[in-house]
Every structure is written in C-alpha cells, then in structure tokens.
Specification:
Layout: H1 21-27, H2 30-33, H3 37-53, H4 59-77, H5 90-102, H6 104-108, H7 115-151, E1 156-161, E2 164-170, H8 171-194, E3 198-199, H9 215-222, E4 226-227, H10 231-236, H11 239-265, E5 273-274, H12 293-317, H13 330-354, E6 356-357, H14 359-366, H15 373-382, H16 387-404, H17 413-417, H18 427-431, H19 433-438, H20 448-461
Parallel strand pairs: 3-4
Antiparallel strand pairs: 1-2, 5-6
C-alpha cells in the first residue's frame, strides 16, 4: 500500500509545534481535492521535465521522479493509495509518497514551484478535462430533442403565456426552443474552457521565481494556448471557475424550467406525455401514484448550482491579492457543480428519450380554449379592419361562446358573420389549429417548413 508515512508539514521548519486538532481538521482539503490527482500528477511530470531542461535535475533524478509518479498513478487508479489528512491536500500527499519511494529526488520536485501556482494549474486542467464529457452530454441532449422533434413534427399542442392557452404551436417547436437554449449553454461552457487556456505554472507563490523557468515549455507540454503574464494574477485568478459555475447555473435553470413542464405535462390534468416507469417512482402509501421524481429532483438541483456560484462570488469579493486560504473553498463549489450538472443532463436525456407523447390530449386541449383567437383577429386585419377593432370583435365572440358553453369549433360561418360582415366561409379553416400553425409565415415560427429548417440547422451544429 502506498500510504505516505511522512507527516511533517512542508512549512514545518518555522514552527516549534504541530497544529491543534481543530486547526488540522479545518486545514485539510484532501477529502475533496483528492479528485485532482490526475491533474496534479500531469502537472508534476511537466514540471519535472522543465527542471531537467534548466539543469535543476539530473537525468537519473528525472527518471526516478517520472517512474515514481507513474507508480503512484497506477496505485491511485487501482484504489490502493491511502490519502492522509495530516498532509492536508493532494499536492503534499503525492509529494510525500513520491519522496518515500525515491528519496531526495522527490524532495527536489517542488523546486521553482509553489502550491499556489500548482493548484491554479490543477484546477484549470480539471475544468478542461471535465468539460469534455459535459460537452458530450449537452450535444447528446440536443440530439434527443432534435430526434423527438422530427418524430413528432405534425403533433400540435397549445402554446402558453402566463400558463394560459395562447396559440397553437407544433410540439416540436416547443422542444426546439429548449434545444436552442442548450446550444447557448454549450457556448457558455466553451467560454469557461477558454478561460482556462492560459498557463499559471511558473509564477511561484506570487512574485515569480528565482530560477530561469521555461514557461513556454510548460505551456506546450500541458497543452495551453498562452501564458498568464502576471504572476500575482496567475495565482489568485478564479474567473474560470466563476465562468464554469455560471454556465452550470444557467444550464441548471433551463433544465429546471423544462422539468417543470414535464411535471405539468405528465399530470392527469394535462396528460400530454407519459414518463417511463424507469424514471418515475411510486408512493409508500398511495398505490396508484406515478411520481415524476427525477424531474423534480433535477428541478431542485438548480438551486445548488446557483448557490455554488453565489457562494464562490461571496468568497472572492473581499479577498486582497494574492493567494488567500479562503480559496480552498473554490474546490467543493466547482466539484459539486460539475457533478450536479453532469447528473442532471444525463437524467434529462433519459426522461426525454423514453417518454410517450399523447397527441390526442394535446389536440383536445387546443379544441377547448380558444387557441386560434389571434388568427381570427389577424383574418379581419388582413381584410382592412384595424387590429384593435378586430381584437375587440374576437373578444365579443369569445364571451358569447363562453356564455353558450361552446368553443369556436361549435360555430358556423354564419355565426361569425353576425359579429362582422368581413367574415366569409373560409373562416372555418382559419379557426382550425392545424391551419393556424401554417399561417405563421415569419422566419423562426411554428410552421412545418420553419420547424424543419430549425431541425436541419441544429443537426449541422451538433455533428
């Protein structure tokens, strides 16, 4: 087992005694930053190679360090490495284990490096690495929405404002509204990744280093596009974590809004969709229940994502330059946001890809809520009636129908003509929801042609 036996603090020479128990507990971060082990080892490999380039390590020492890091990597991967809270963090756990294995060469690895620029590097690498799988999940979710839209291209549903029936729309048009939003979320994710593309390593604690470190070599070795030009900025910047948490918050809010609709649509009052048994749960007391728990849980998790962003903003707002230990709080906020948005995206894709669409219930909702009232008003406007007058006429028709307990579909052309001489026999076709959606001539509307154009555009963007 690779348990690191050395418990001496890296800064222990200045102090005559050890930390108290509570100080040790508050200081330790290994319980959550151990997940940075891949990035920490990757950074240490690059740093060791750079030290050899500038003559601070021999070939033999470099070989020992690289071999030792590989052994530790394999041991952690296999689950056989024991992390020690007394060594505080992932950096010192790996360094202590390396020194235990290879001796003084391990103690040389920290030359020309501070934990301040080391953790700044690890966190950037971690955001870059985790964003790859999140990007894939976003694209997969958009693909599910596109496929559902294609499959249900001719399903018409009520569109809502204020949660009141407003106008007929294609179900696919509604789904694609979310697809475009998730595509913007993917753009925000890319912005967060771009914020990680400059190398902090080689800045030291804050002032630079007393060695001719080859930062350009480190940049190339670690795959960065540039170098942070100010050493104080390099160790204190956490903008990239804010950017990621902002992406996760906005994406989480969008997921939450969508889940709210899934909850409504799957209720007995709406009945527009049926969520699969695999993503619903029952009640411990009511045998008939099929609860949309997964949708509700994803909706609830949006609060965590927004909270992580707010928490980190508050942590940063009062910090002077440069590194302050408060920054240890950034990790749990980031890690939770990564895990939460990952789980939520996967859960949403699962719910959507397995749900059943009830087009008949949608059609029924359209036929009893005056959903084509605006089309009737536009019909009159096209005949020269001022729109405000048309609006008033249709309002009277609606009131009359409500008094009779019928909808537009219960009226004949002659009934419409009682309210205005401009009505002709073709008004009956205008009233139908199927015709309403095709009357939308503007780009980006809910007509079949425009929805198909959206589908094709999204397909090209997510290839």
């Amino acid at each position: 087992m690779g348990k690191a036996k050395e418990k001496k603090k890296p800064w222990g020479g200045r102090f005559s005694g050890g930390l108290s128990g509570i100080a040790e507990k508050i200081s330790a971060s290994i319980q959550f930053d151990s997940r940075l082990w891949r990035q920490d080892i990757r950074g240490s490999r690059a740093h060791a190679k750079m030290l050899r380039r500038i003559g601070l390590l021999t070939d033999a020492e470099l070989d020992d360090i690289l071999r030792g890091l590989s052994d530790i990597e394999k041991e952690i991967e296999a689950g056989g490495f024991s992390f020690s809270a007394s060594l505080e963090d992932i950096h010192m756990n790996i360094e202590a284990a390396l020194t235990e294995r290879i001796g003084d060469a391990g103690r040389k690895l920290h030359t020309a490096r501070s934990r301040n620029d080391q953790v700044a590097l690890d966190m950037r690498l971690h955001v870059r690495d985790e964003s790859e799988s999140i990007r894939t999940l976003l694209q997969g979710l958009i693909r599910v929405l596109v496929e559902l839209s294609e499959k249900n291209i001719d399903v018409i549903m009520p569109g809502y404002t204020h949660l009141q029936v407003a106008q007929p729309v294609r179900f696919s048009h509604h789904l694609l509204a979310y697809a475009w939003g998730f595509l913007r979320d993917a753009g925000r994710l890319e912005s967060a990744v771009k914020a990680c593309e400059h190398l902090p390593l080689g800045s030291g604690a804050l002032a630079g280093l007393n060695y001719p470190v080859d930062r350009e070599f480190l940049r190339e070795e670690l795959g960065f596009t540039g170098i942070i030009p100010n050493s104080m900025d390099a160790v204190s910047d956490r903008d990239f974590i804010l950017d990621f948490c902002y992406f996760a918050s906005v994406c989480g809010v969008r997921l939450s809004r969508f889940c709210e609709e899934l909850v409504l649509w799957s209720s007995s009052e709406f009945g527009f969709i049926r969520l699969a048994d695999a993503v619903t749960t029952g009640s411990s007391i009511m045998p008939q229940k099929r609860n949309p728990d997964i949708a509700e849980l994803i909706r609830g998790k949006s609060g965590r994502l927004a909270g992580n962003l707010a928490s980190l903003l508050m942590t940063l707002k009062g910090l002077p330059m440069t590194y302050n230990r408060d920054l240890q709080e950034d990790k749990e906020r980031l890690f939770d946001s990564i895990d939460t948005v990952t789980l939520s995206l996967a859960g949403m894709a699962e719910m959507l890809s397995t749900m059943t669409v009830n087009s008949e219930r949608m059609k029924k909702a359209l036929s009893s809520n005056f959903s084509t009232a605006t089309d009737i008003a536009d019909y009159l406007a096209r005949k020269g009636v001022p729109f405000r007058t048309s609006h008033e006429i249709v309002g009277r028709i609606v009131r009359s129908c409500e008094e009779q307990g019928i909808d537009f579909f219960g009226l004949k052309a002659s009934d419409f003509k009682k309210f205005s001489p401009e009505f002709e026999d073709d008004i009956i076709d205008i009233v139908k929801p199927e015709g309403s959606v095709e009357l939308k001539l503007s780009s980006g509307g809910t007509s079949r042609k425009e929805v198909l154009a959206q589908i094709e555009a999204l397909k090209k963007m997510i290839r």
